[in-house]
Amino acid sequence: MTFPLRPFWLCADVGACAADTLVTRVSAALAAAPATVWLRSPHGHSAAPLLALAHALRDVTARAACPLVVGDRVDVAVCCEADAVHLPERALRPVDVHRLAPALRVSVAVHDATGVTRATEANALVVSPFGAVEGKNAPLRRDGLAALVARAASKPVIALGGITTVDDVRAAVQAGARGVAVRRALLDGDDPARACATLAAALDAAGLTATAHW
After folding, report:
1. d(CA 108, CA 88)
2. Domain spans of the chain?
3. Segment holding 25, helix H or strand E
């Protein structure tokens, strides 16, 4: 069971809400707009509860014919039959993941030109922060992202960080991003389906939602 990685990424952060609420929000968002679901554990969580949540999200994404990406934990990604694993800067190298789990695709966190150079074995790059995010580096904005996209050559780039409006999505696409990752649209507010559908529609208008799968 393998699904293509879609340009619209949903950041499903462990601990942002109760696990059952997170699964419900993801399910509602996918019913409104097909997406790549990225299970993130920004503060670290033990394997057993993380795997249980990953299995629940795998069930939801499989029913929607959408992919699941597990952040950092290659073991959890393999056990839940995820489609990909996302590696932070100090994680395993993509080539090591390919040896351990050849079927897993790999995305890598990138923040600067050095990160692009190091990610030669990755299938996709997640570049951040595109917009302003508290506690993160200065935002790349359109020009900074465009410079990294140019260095990435043919590798697809997903823009992450501070993407909350249709204008943000448009600016990222204009900079050459092949997709965007969003958190607030999924986790904040009372209507994640509507919020996610609005941003996904901006990608669709740019011709990405239907065509830029990899």
Report:
1. 6
2. 8-205
3. helix 19-32
Query: Do residues 193 and 32 touch, judged by C-beta distance below 8 A?
Result: yes
Element (H, E) at 158: strand 157-160
3-state secondary structure of 90: coil
Tell me the C-alpha distance between 46 and 40, whole Å.
13
Q: Which of 35, 39, 33 is nearest to 56 (CA)?
A: 39
Do residues 71 and 93 lie in contact, with contact meaning Cβ atoms separated by under 8 Å? no
The helix-helix angle for 19-32 and 47-63 (nearest 10°) equals 20
Superfamily name with CATH number, domain 8-205: Aldolase class I (3.20.20.70)
Angstrom CA distances, 19 to 11, 45, 49, 56, 163, stand at: 14, 13, 9, 9, 24
**pLDDT tens-digit profile of 138-163?**
899 999 999 999 999 889 999 999 99
How would you class 22 by CB atoms within 10 Å of its CB: exposed for 0-12, middle for 13-18, buried for 19 or more? Answer: buried
Quick one: pLDDT band at residue 120, thresholds 50, 70, 90? confident
Structure tokens at 180: 């965007």
Instruction: Judge contact between 40 and 14, C-beta under 8 A.
Output: yes
**Has residue 213 got a pLDDT over 60?**
no
Strand partners, 54: none
Strand partners, 159: 127, 180
Cα separation, 133 vs 15, in Å, equals: 19
